[in-house]
Amino acid sequence: MSAIAALWLALAIDRWFGEPPARWHPVVWIGRCLGWAGRRIAPPAGAPARARAAFAGGALAWCAGAALVAAAACAVAEVASRLPAWAGPLLTGIALKPLLAWRMLRDEVLAVEAALGRSLDEGRGRLARLVSRDVGALDAVGVRESAIESLAENLNDSLVAPLFWFALFGLPGAALYRFANTADAMWGYRGEREGRQWTWAGKWAARADDLLSWLPARLTALFLWGASAAAGAGLGTLRREAGRTPSPNSGWPMAAMALQLGIRLGKPGVYVLNEAGRSAAAADTPQAARLAARGVALAGACASAAIGCIALRGAA
């Protein structure tokens, strides 16, 4: 049961202390390595199209990076297993914490609302730190909707999915997921980005993240659905709304958030979720944060139950 203690220790560290300094943050290290590798695997914009070579390079680089991250996590897990009963969970919890980022996500989303309360331009500027879309044409409602969408979508990426894979495979599982998610964020683009062509070079990373996020994204939606005190919509409606987004995964937590808050969320020209809902108001952002916080508690409880069941089955 040491894994359960490590899980709650990581959540407690996240709540009380937030993110470690960048120089000690393993996800920052992963991002820097991916940036270095990306400049070597993605062809410059305008270069002759070599789809197979770009795809193969991206796949090989992803696999090499994943192997290194998994090996490092396995080494930490091995050291933790050899420590005294009190020290092993402590080391594991400290190592797991940087792979979870709930407090940072919540604080950034609430900061968007606070900035929006001062001015639209300040709200747009703060949102630009959180999303990759163009925020220049968004009005106040659009800024708020985008922030709430980001909260819902990243609740999976930053917390539920790492906990899911930690429950199944321990620290290596959580670390491998965070590598895959970071690789998708940096490589998983269609077309040109920062002077390089990513359509094929980033395809493996994008599909790997889709695969590893498939079930956690749906669990995130269920946690949000179950965390609301309101009656909300049925699961059939949730499934239908989730299918409106191009992504196979991100629509689930976003649709759950929209339906449970009774608001409309969308990306102009791409999709609208809960179209019959009202426009998001200033009070909806903190309400979304509270709903997500209850979802975090549910995710922690379910991950703990899963770890306990796996341990009991292994002992039988």
Give an overview in words.
By secondary structure, this protein is mainly α. The protein has helices at 2-17, 26-41, 51-82, 87-96, 102-118, 120-128, 140-187, 203-227, 235-242, 251-261, 284-315; strands at 192-193, 196-197, 265-267, 271-273. It has a two-stranded antiparallel sheet. Strands 3-4 form a two-stranded antiparallel ribbon. A hairpin with a 3-residue loop joins β3 and β4 (271-273). α2 packs across α7, α5 packs antiparallel against α7 (140-187) and α7 (140-187) packs parallel to α11 (284-315). The longest helix is centred in the middle third of the chain and has 48 residues, at 140-187. The two termini are 15 Å apart.
Strand residue content? under 5%
Helix content: over 70%
Structural class: mainly alpha
Q: How would the global form be characterised?
A: globular
Low-confidence stretches: none
- List the total number of helices: 11
Distance between the termini: 15 Å
- Report the C-alpha radius of gyration, rounded: 20 Å
Q: Strand order, main sheet: write it out.
A: 1-2
The overall pLDDT average reads 94
Number of strands: 4
Q: What's the story with the biggest beta sheet?
A: 2 strands, antiparallel
Q: Secondary-structure element order, as H and E?
A: HHHHHHHEEHHHEEH
